[in-house]
Amino acid sequence: MRVLVAGATGAVGRILLPHLLDAGHHVTGVSRTADGAALIRKAGAEAVRADALDAEGLRRAVAEAAPEAVVHQLTDLGGADGAANDRLRREGTRHLVDAARAAGVRRIVAQSISWVYAPGAPGDGPADESVPLDPTREQPRARIVDAVQALETRAAELPEAVVLRYGILYGPGTWYAPGGPVAAALGGDPRARFLGSVAADDSVSSFVHVMDAARAAASALGWPAGTYNVVDDEPAPGHTWVPALARALGTPAPERTTGGAPWACGATNGRARALGWTPTYPSWREGFAHQAG
Questions:
Q1: SS3 string of 139-208?
Q2: pLDDT higher than 60, residue 195
Q3: pLDDT recorded at residue 168
Q4: Which of 52, 141, 193, 253 is most deeply packed, by most CB within 10 A?
Q5: Sheet holding 160-166, edge to edge
Q6: Structural domain boundaries of the chain?
């Protein structure tokens, strides 16, 4: 299959490229920069230069690649600017879907997130894909949920849209990697800026290693259209996972606190597992320890 990967040099994209190539796909990666294009070619894929916020430039790049499927892994997290990431979800997805449609593409696999569900999942346990998105108007969460809704709605304009709601990504190239922003925050660096939370409270989170996220994205080229949580098997409260992460990163752990966000209940992965996806790291416990070496 001819596959175009938008966001090919991101934390998931750079791992995804070799998975797709090993599976026999003809892969083209998109990058805004010459350095990014060079990394894509070094991985063995073809490269095109385009900015997802430049509609015409992206349209030309997608037309040049002539893909049969598009994989959307676009994020803007380097500056820890939530508004920039939300804009990319809204406008970048709009441009990518329009470019794909113009090129005759029917299938898209799009990266979303799994912590946008409304409070009150069945039994107040982890949320499955039937739980609606959070209708809150409280900021900044409302802005994040609205951007995710826009991304997923626009992706669904293509006939074969697969949306992957990832858990919190950890592993190489993520905020949760050794030396990353979360480690800096746990270490007390006042300059550390990130969008996630490292409060050791009762808020429940679901994680997924970037390698497992990439494997899911590669497999999803053959999945039925729909929405899938891509998370590990162990949703956990902050008072459990934060100390474990701190130990793995060699930083102090914050004091345990009570309470937490009512929407933070984690997510289930049964739908993706039913299609044969299994996480290499079934729990963040093994994954955190592995990334610490």
A1: CCHHHHHHHHHHHHHHHCCCCEEEEEEECEEECCCCCCCCCCHHHHHHCCCCCCCCCCCCCCCCCEECEE
A2: no
A3: 97
A4: 52
A5: 46-49, 26-31, 2-6, 69-72, 107-113, 160-166, 226-230
A6: 2-292
Q: What is the pTM of this model?
A: 0.95
Q: What's the chain's Rg over C-alpha atoms?
A: 18
Residues 163 and 27: their CA atoms lie apart, in Å, by 20
What local confidence, expressed as pLDDT, does residue 125 receive? 83
Cis before residue 140, ω within 30 degrees of 0? yes
Extract the tokens encoding 235.
């949703």
Is 223 in a helix, a strand, or coil?
Answer: coil
Q: CATH top-level class for 2-292?
A: alpha beta
Q: Is 87 helix (H, G, I), strand (E, B) or coil?
A: helix
- Measured CA angle at 246 (ends 244, 251), to 5 deg: 155
Query: Alpha helices of 27-140 — where are they, by DSSP H?
Result: 34-42, 55-65, 82-87, 93-102
Q: What is the mean pLDDT of residues 243-271?
A: 93
148 touches 86 (CB < 8 A)? no
pLDDT digits (tens, 9 = 90+) for 259-272: 999 999 999 999 99
**Mean per-residue pLDDT over the chain, rounded:** 93
Using the structure block, give the residue that is written with the tokens 């100390």: 243
What are 127's two structure tokens?
């949320």
